[in-house]
Amino acid sequence: MNTRPDFSKHANHAATAPAYFSVWDLHAYYGESYIVQGVNFNVHEGEILALLGRNGAGKTSTLRAIARMDSPQVNHGEIWLDHQPLHTMRAHQAAMAGIGLVPEDRCIIPGLTVEENLQLAQIAPPVGWSIQRLYELFPRLGERRKQEGVTLSGGEQQMLAIARALARDIKVLLLDEPYEGLAPVIVDEIEKTLIHIKELGITTVIVEQNAIRALELADRAVILDTGQIVFDGLASEVLDDAALRAEYLAI
Ligand SMILES: Nc1ncnc2c1ncn2[C@@H]1O[C@H](COP(=O)(O)OP(=O)(O)OP(=O)(O)O)[C@@H](O)[C@H]1O
Ligand SMILES: [Mg+2]
């Protein structure tokens, strides 16, 4: 087994047992543009972490760096998930190690039905939830199993994107703006599902412009500003601190 970094040596980390999922001193670039500037955070197993910040703060870039996408390029730092060094991996290996990224544009595959989108996710191991179980979690998807995925409503497409992540055996769900463009009643429905997923022990990192909704859901929060962490604490602390929200979230 790989040894984990001793975070207790670093001032930014409390001298506690290493977390289930840790991002340590992550730096990433798009070409010459230095975007992720030394990001640190820990997530405990089964926890929901809200990753917040203004437009352009580096939230999407951080998620992409964690999922080991080709860009931004990580040139320093470590990412550990359940004793596995994601920073040494390519995107497909990180996916096999348990990272499930649901990107902002949802990436439903055109020309495929709902069911085919889910089957495609299960074409290679490690397979997660059965399609039947996913339809129990999202009955709307079961009703529309034969419909082309891209013709679903925005909320249904978000459900399909989350279902497709769960169709693989994931340890951490990374959600980029899952509530974007959705009516409050649909946000309620997706939120209920995320609470259910948490109860089943899956760890979630949620990036959301709708920071209040994300904070009400999350256990803890980190706030990014120009690629650096400026707050790390309980979600309730952010909800209770109007000055902090005004400064970094403009709400
Ligand atoms: N492919 C890219 N090439 C160059 N710069 C990029 C690229 N993608 C993002 N950036 C820049 O990186 C910075 C952070 O962008 P990122 O998308 O991570 O922000 P974000 O916090 O997700 O913002 P938003 O809330 O608007 O989604 C921005 O200044 C953005 O212009
Ligand atoms: Mg973004």
UniProtKB/TrEMBL annotation:
Keywords: Amino-acid transport, ATP-binding, Nucleotide-binding, Transport
InterPro entries: AAA+_ATPase, ABC_transporter-like_ATP-bd, ABC_transporter-like_CS, BCAA_Transport_ATP-bd_LivF, P-loop_NTPase
One GO term (biological process): L-amino acid transport
GO molecular function: ATP binding; ATP hydrolysis activity; branched-chain amino acid transmembrane transporter activity
ABC transporter domain residues: 21-251
Family per record: Belongs to the ABC transporter superfamily.
Full protein name: ABC transporter ATP-binding protein
UniProt source species: Pacificitalea manganoxidans
